[in-house]
Design a protein that fits this description.
The protein has 397 residues and is of the alpha/beta class. It has 15 helices and 13 strands. A 7-stranded parallel sheet has the order 5-4-3-6-11-12-13, with helices on both faces.
């Protein structure tokens, strides 16, 4: 079939298998170009199919020469209907890993469920024995609680008062005001249940109970802080409460891993175009301004550059892993530089529908958004008849 992007709001309803394959190959080439990393050799990535999770799996395999198990919840293709992009990404990753002689297997299902945890445990026991590194990179808006059976939905709301500020429709470039009503306590509680640290703890406890964590095992979860301009709706809103819980969980997990010399960290990463961030009002405008500045300064990074730097300069460099006063790894350090944020604040005040094409990088934002779904890559013939029925080898073998 001829596969074209079909947009609905901040979602693309189609994905291109050849474009997703090119995306994965580009990231692999980048990691290989930076040289080998003396890091973990048996890695579990929970949320492995897109964004920072995919970049973590690629950095583990092609940077550290690691065996990887990836857990994700993606839609397979059916005749005449494309898969979700994460499915095609995972198919391409496995194919490239196997060509390189690397172990790579995947599990497609609800990572919050007991069933998927058990399936993962059985695979580790059968194939790898133990795990050295666990990356926790889930970005689901809903969670069926495995104990209660209650379906919890996260919300994106400020706390205490209505939030009003600028945002941009990245499809049209129209800059407008957006207002978001404040959360109630139920909104806050549900968001913490979905996006906080409880499930991360459940994963680590389940693996440890089966003696599947190697001595010195490390686990990393990903978080975001961001600037003052997004603070009310992000870091001081419902999602911020969930991130606070996630970050506090790192200390709890570290305590539980003392007997195996293990540690848990939260890595605070840079603002990037993802399916999740595209849905957050204010963030697309902030990112388009940030991109303009960081590209001009030569310090812009995408997911793969961020995670390769996390591995090579934080996790697996000489000496202790550097952290901030709250014990967090800061790979958002370039984004949060004072000079960068001063420029963002100045441009924010100037941003209108008319000025944004000059002062921001909306084109770069749109390009990155299309790339998420496998569109807009050089070297891919988008007019060609393409087989949508691409399978993930380890899932369909």
């Amino acid at each position: 079939m001829i596969i074209e992007p079909r947009m609905r709001g901040f979602i693309c309803l189609t994905a291109h298998p050849k474009g997703c394959e090119q995306n994965v190959k580009n990231q692999i080439d980048y990691v290989k170009s930076k040289g080998s990393i003396d890091g973990a050799k048996r890695v579990l990535v929970i949320g492995a199919s897109t964004g920072f999770g995919l970049a973590s799996r690629i950095s583990s395999a092609f940077g550290c020469n690691a065996s990887t198990i990836g857990v994700f919840f993606e839609k397979p293709p059916t005749e005449g209907k494309t898969a979700s992009p994460g499915w095609y990404n995972s198919a391409a990753f496995e194919n490239e890993a196997h060509k390189a002689g690397l172990y790579a297997k995947s599990i497609n299902g609800d990572a919050f469920s007991k069933e998927v945890k058990q399936q993962t445990i059985d695979m580790i026991k059968a194939d790898l024995g133990q795990i050295d590194l666990i990356i926790y990179s889930l970005a689901s808006p809903v969670r069926m609680h495995p104990e209660t059976g209650v379906l919890h939905r996260s919300t994106l709301k400020p706390i205490g008062s209505t939030f009003t500020n600028k945002t941009v429709d990245f499809h049209t470039g129209n800059v407008s005001q957006v207002s978001i009503e404040p959360a109630n306590q139920e909104d806050i509680d549900n968001t913490v249940v979905v996006m906080g640290g409880e499930d991360w703890t459940m994963w680590i406890d389940a693996l440890k109970a089966e003696n599947l964590l190697a001595d010195g095992a490390t686990t990393i979860a990903y978080s975001y802080i961001g600037p003052a301009v997004t603070e009310a709706v992000y870091r001081k809103g419902t999602i911020g409460r969930a991130k606070d819980h996630l970050e506090a969980t790192a200390f709890t997990i570290t305590d539980s891993l003392k007997d195996i010399n293990g540690k848990a960290y939260v890595s605070v990463n840079k603002a990037l175009v993802t399916q999740a961030s595209s849905a957050i009002p204010v963030i697309p405008l902030y990112i388009s301004l940030l991109y303009k500045i960081m590209k001009a300064d030569g310090i812009h990074e995408g997911c793969i550059e961020q995670i390769q730097r996390l591995y090579s300069q934080r996790l697996y460099s000489e000496g202790e892993i550097p952290t901030d006063e709250n014990g967090r790894i800061r790979i958002d350090d370039w984004e949060m530089r004072a000079d960068v944020q001063e420029q963002v604040a100045k441009l924010w005040a100037e941003a209108t529908t008319e000025t944004l094409p000059q002062i921001g990088d909306l084109a770069g934002y749109k390009q990155d958004f299309l790339n998420l779904f496998g569109f807009g890559f050089e070297g891919v013939d988008y007019d060609a008849d393409t087989n949508e029925l691409v399978m993930v080898e380890s899932i369909n073998s």
